[in-house]
Every structure is written in C-alpha cells, then in structure tokens.
Amino acid sequence: MEELELAIKELKELLPGLKILENEPMSAHCSFKTGGPARAVAVPSDVFSLTRICSVMKKHKIFPMALGNGTNFLFPDEGLPDMLFISTEKLQKIFLNEDGTIYAESGVSLSRLSGFAQQNGLKGLEFASGIPGTVGGGIWMNAGAYGGEMKDAVQSVVYYFYPDQGLYEQLGKDCQFGYRTSFFQNNPAIILSAVFALDKDEPEAIASRMREINEKRREKQPLDLPSAGSAFKRPEGHYAAALIEECGLKGYRNGNAQVSDKHAGFVVNLGGATSKDVYDLMMHVRNEVYAQKQVELHPEIIILPPDYKLTDTSPAAPKNVAFTNGDYEKTAGGTGTSAAKEENQ
Ligand SMILES: Cc1cc2nc3c(=O)[nH]c(=O)nc-3n(C[C@H](O)[C@H](O)[C@H](O)COP(=O)(O)OP(=O)(O)OC[C@H]3O[C@@H](n4cnc5c(N)ncnc54)[C@H](O)[C@@H]3O)c2cc1C
Q1: What integer pLDDT is reported at residue 320 of this predicted model?
Q2: Which end of the chain has fewer beta carbons closer than 10 Å to its terminal beta carbon, N or C?
Q3: Residues facing residue 20 across a β-bridge
C-alpha cells in the first residue's frame, strides 16, 4: 500500500472521530469553484488533533498542505490523488487577551477578525474586513488591501514545524513579511494561531472606515462571480490591471474563464469554467503582456499542477510550479514588487 493510503488508514484508527473527506472535489473548497478531487481533506476539530494528524503524516514522510478558505488557490481539474489537505475550518477560537491584544486561531475568517477588533474598539484591521481568507491564509500570504497588510497587525504566530514536529512561537517582526510573502512560504509549517496588537479607536469610526473600504470593493471588484482576487502580483513600477487593460485584454475570454470586464486584475469563472480555462487564460495574459509591454506578470494565486505532492524532501511550500511555458523560460511565482501597495483596490 502506498504511504498516503497507510497514513489515512492509521489516521482513521488513531483518531476515529476525525472528519476525513475522501476523494473530495476541491471545487467545493475554493472560491474559483474549479478543481478535481484530492485524495483527502482532513478537518481536525482542534489544534491538538491537527498536530496529531501532522505527526502521522510525518511518519509516512508526507507533508500535508494547509487549506484555509481556498480563496487563493487554483486546483487542477485532474485532481490531486497524492495530496492530503488539512482544513482549518474548525479552528475558530477568538478572544481578547487581558493586555488588549486579540488571540485568533488560524481558521478564523479575516472578516470575523476585523469585526471582532472593531467591536472591541481596536483599529488596524479595517483593510482585512473584505478579504475572504482566514487568519492562516492571510498570514501565509501577508494579505493586504487599501494600505494595510497583515504584517502591521501581527504580534506573534504559533505554528507547527514539520521537520522537527515542534510548536514554535515567532514574533511578527521575525516572520519575514514582504509583498504577498512571509516566512511560512519558505518553511514547511502550519499556522495554528496568531496574536494581533492593535491601537484603540472609537468603534463607530472604525466601522465607518470598514464600510468605506467595502463600498470601494463592491464598486470596483466583480464580487458576484467566483474568482481568487487579483490573479497576478503587482509588477515593479506597474499595475497588473492597467497593463492587462492596455493590452486590450479586459473582458478577454477563454472557455468560461474571463478577464473581468469590471476589474482587469481579476480572472472570473463565468459558470462552469475549468481550472484549465483559468490557467490557459492566465498564460495568455502573461504572454501577451510580455509581448506588448516587456513586463513579466507573476501569479498571486497558488496554482497546483496535477499529481502534485509534498514529501519530506519537497520544497517547503507550494510554489507556482505549474506556471511555466516555452515562450520564455522564467518561472513565475517569484517575488513581485516590494512595494506594499496592492491592486485589489
Ligand atoms: C473576491 C476576492 C478578493 C480578494 N481580495 C484580496 C485582497 O484585497 N488582498 C489580498 O491580499 N488578497 C485578496 N484575495 C486573495 C485571498 O483572499 C487572500 O490571499 C487570503 O489571504 C487567502 O486566505 P485563505 O484562507 O483563503 O487561504 P487559502 O487560499 O486556503 O491558502 C492560500 C495559501 O495559504 C496556505 N495556508 C492557508 N492556511 C494556512 C495555515 N493555517 N498554515 C499554513 N499555511 C496556510 C495554503 O497552504 C496556501 O498555500 C481575494 C480573494 C478573493 C476571492
């Protein structure tokens, strides 16, 4: 029996109450609504169960991939028969510490986190109220919008470190946050929880800023259609959306995937799109922008190729390994600009 099958069998024996979704369509777990089945999605009910899953996987030399709200993933249509994901959807604890900081587990949504901060008169997370991800995915990506980034609010992060199976706490300043990147993209780790340090303000003033930001989002972004937010990172000195529009690609369609006619930085699923439709569209956009503008676009979305798997010796994190082609041989998925400004706005 393959190692993954042995690991799943062992998980069922060791943790009989654990929810394991087998041969689970990943279209049900991502905001693009595309992608074939992964071998399994385990849904631990607490962080202890999560670490126990990890140690079983470690024994079988398989690194499980964390899954937040799936709002920054493109899963392959062919499926991922060698992958086990750990969903953080049940890690939902959030509370105010005595010193005024907020503790939140990794599955807490960014909108709930920012709402909790607002209710407690704490400012600094207004930018996150409309980002549809989780605390874990937001920290992994250093998600940001409207001048704010996770790095500005994270005081510390507790994570499981796969190589030695230890639990570590890392200060925010040591998380190597950069433009849509963090320490966690280069290290095999699963974020369990984080503490946020924020300044005081009037709850009504915070609420008003949140309303303003979300109004701008509704005006400018195609929120009525499945997408994964900005498809590409902001290239140094440019805006991806402006470049794409200047190349005549706004509204460009491939199958049922389209460069949004509302915001050219978004790729949307018009209904029934496949991941291949999305991928080929992104490839076309990248090639066209390079041909017309000589600017390289790198995907912001994590694109997993078919048959992807992570083992003991894999690179730490899912890089955009699928995003290469023969037209020019540079691998996408590298760093974007170091500027903190982003294009979701
Ligand atoms: C309509 C829309 C608008 C968006 N607007 C913005 C925006 O304004 N700004 C912005 O930055 N992004 C935006 N996004 C993209 C996305 O919401 C963010 O990147 C978000 O942080 C992803 O969080 P997630 O929980 O969905 O992560 P997922 O998509 O589930 O995962 C993304 C990556 O994080 C890793 N990960 C997730 N949880 C953990 C964990 N606990 N431990 C370790 N690794 C983990 C995954 O393995 C994966 O590599 C938008 C997306 C949509 C659909």
Answers
A1: 52
A2: N
A3: 42
Any ligand 1 atom below 6 A from CB of 109: no
Report whether residue 228 contacts ligand 1, using a CB cutoff of 6 Å.
yes
Is ligand 1 within 6 A of the CB of residue 226? no
**Residue 302, ligand 1, Cβ within 6 A:** yes
Residue 24 is inside which H or E element, if any?
strand 19-25
For the segment 83-142, what is each residue's pLDDT rounded down to a tens digit?
999 999 999 999 999 999 999 999 999 999 999 999 999 999 999 999 999 999 999 999
Q: Could you state, in order of their start, the residue ranges of all structural domains in the chain? A: 3-87, 94-205
* Ligand 1 pocket residue status of 303, Cβ below 6 Å: no
Ligand 1 site-directed mutation target among 69, 72, 125, 177, most atoms within 8 Å of CB: 72
Q: Which of 337, 119, 135 is nearest to 239 (CA)?
A: 337
Q: What's the token pair of residue 142?
A: 């250093």
DSSP string for 130-153: G--SBHHHHHHHT-EETTEEGGGT
Closest-lying ligand 1 atom to the alpha carbon of residue 345: 8
Question: CA of 64: how far to CAs of 10, 60, 176, 278, 323, in Å?
Answer: 15, 11, 22, 25, 22
CATH 3.40.50.720 fits 3-87, yes or no: no
pTM: 0.93
Catalytic residue set: 180, 230, 300
Over residues 62-70, the mean pLDDT reads 95
Cβ pair 144, 127 in contact under 8 A: yes
In the CATH scheme, what architecture does the domain 94-205 have? 2-Layer Sandwich (3.30)
Report phi then psi at 59, rounded to 5: -60, -35
